[in-house]
Write a structure and sequence with these properties.
It contains 4 helices and no strands. By secondary structure, it is an all-alpha fold.
Amino acid sequence: MIVIAKNMTASLPYHPYKISNLKDPNYSAAYISLIFNDREEGDLELKIMLSALRDVFEALGEPNMSEEDAKLHFMIWLLG
């Protein structure tokens, strides 16, 4: 049961919102540029870059996949 206090709105999950924005190729390009221009160090940087690329591939690739491939992609994403 979800209880929302008076005057508070429920927030939407971030991932679907991000993916919907990343379906715009210009937005995806800016997102990737921002990630790759960020100056983090070590494994965190690699994890951030891989996550960003995975999100862009999901947003731009899924519309071009068959239903079966999209289901497989989703299962791989869940297992992460």
